[in-house]
Amino acid sequence: MLKRLLLAALMFMPTALFADKAGIGAWENSNQTMLRWIEDAPALDWYYTWRPTQMWSKDTRRRSVEFVPMIRDAGDVNKKIVSDLPVRTLLAFNEPDSRKSAGSNLSVEQAVALWPKLEARGLRLGSPAVTQGQTLGKTSWQGRFMAQAEARGLRVDFMAVHYYSTNGDVKAFENWLRAVHAEYGRPIWVTEFAYIDWFNVRSANYAQNAAFAEAAILMMERLPFVERHAWFAANPYPYAGGAPQINLVSNTLQPTPVGVAFDRALSRIGARRVASAEE
Length: 279
Description:
disordered N terminus, 16% strand, Asl1_glyco_hydro_catalytic, signal, alpha/beta, TIM Barrel, 33% helix, ASL1
């Protein structure tokens, strides 16, 4: 509701005043009500689903939060984008350097060969989002992809990155983002971030993730080269027999401590936008 009121009050203000940064990665919950949470979250500007189709919902309400499609792997390259709202941007190839279930498992050469098909969509296009350890350096997956893309004149409009902190150090996160920007010279979208060690998913609790989420969001809002960010994830995410305490809401949309901190951070962002518009 707060978001709707802000939009109504500010709809005639110049769009340059707004960062439009805050987003979320999410998928349908068992009651098909996740879209309701997305539409009601304060100052939430966009979401994505790791696929080219928007969030399905049994709710027929008018959609207002921007959907950003993703071509997750080679199997999605020719799929139709489905969105009730106009689409401006395309995300590409989720963790192509990884063979895990979430990864698209593509070689640099395969991704480069498929890239012209993504460019042909005519949308603003983000880089593949590789795992954190394969983002920086000439021999990393991302480094090799970007070198080949630039040598062939392929278009990459911004860098999509993932960052998972194992100690909750927000300054280290900021320094890493600055290094990515310095290396590739493009705007950055952080399409996944959280406080978690994937080799020990119980290493961080809800309170620690709540503190990290709020501080990291406010940090990224201050960095002009970070265009957008999306927490991982809105939904519960069972992993390796555990239940990482990173989700914002339960399957029945009850907020976790991380969800409360996320709303608080986004409410501060929304208030800041109002204050900027009034100056």
